[in-house]
Design brief:
Blueprint lengths: L2 H20 L2 H15 L13 H15 L14 H31 L6 H33 L6 H7 L1 H17 L5 H13 L2 E2 L4 E2 L4 E2 L6 E2 L4 E2 L4 E2 L4 E3 L7 H4 L8 E2 L4 E2 L4 E3 L4 E2 L4 E2 L4 E2 L8 E2 L18
Parallel strand pairs: 1-4, 2-5, 3-6, 4-7, 5-8, 6-9, 7-10, 8-11, 9-12, 10-13, 12-14
Length: 323
Amino acid sequence: MFSKDIDNLRCVDDAEDANQFYQNIPPVVKELAASCKKHGCFDHLGSIPIPTHEKVVQLIEQARRILFPGYFSPTAINPANLEYSLGQETTELFENLAAQITLAVQHECFQARQSCTRCKGQGYAKAVKFIQTLPAISDILATDIQAALDGDPAAKGADEVIFSYPGLMAISVYRLAHELHKLAVPVLPRIMTEYAHSRTGIDIHPGATIGKSFFIDHGTGVVIGETTVIGERVRLYQGVTLGALSLPHDAGERYRNVKRHPTIEDEVIIYANSTILGGDTVIGKRAVIGGNIWITESVPPETKVILKRPELVYQGKDKKQKA
């Protein structure tokens, strides 16, 4: 027998050997299904409506095409067709958003066992109110872009900031999600900001309040909690946390509508890896918080907070012992 024929027989034998492992899968599936019946599991079975994650992401991309015409569009846009292009995109965004808001409202009604609240009408009403905020969002994003250009010498121009800066990406999605949050749209705002979080490493809760000319430099590891209030012309660096103090295990309902995160007033700069915690903590205007600082109490305006310079020890031949 030729060696090629022997190799073919071996391949057949290998395939038959592999088949025997598949019989181990059905018992596992039965156990998984049984475990849900036994103690409940976090599934979403049956006819209860729910928004589609993929379509919510598509809403973000569509909104960015509207807010930054020509940057993310698949076809060229020029002054002659700008209004037509914006009209088409905005109409489609309205229709797609209304559908997802309707699903989100229906989902909340089903979960709470509420009587009919005319979900579709709410979906369209909230969607059109959101669409009406787009010009204001565009205006405030222009100040965020300018803040990046003013605050970062490495920025070569607005194109670079819009195309590539993770801070602007996260801020853009936050500003969209924040408007939906203010309209009391369930689920969608958080899906949007967590998508931006996964893309940029920047976690901004849609409930936070952030003024114009906001700049996040580098950005990885930044966390901004739900009840944070940030003034105008504020600059954050990577690793900054604006968070809550440790809460008891049953804090979910008790503290849901309580201010838990700090207030950062106008023109504050917070350097890398600093942590500011607590709903009563206020960082006053034009304060500067140095790197690696831990703060749980208020800082007066015009104050600089820095760590005392540490003592560095150099070990090795021909090295200074202290610096």
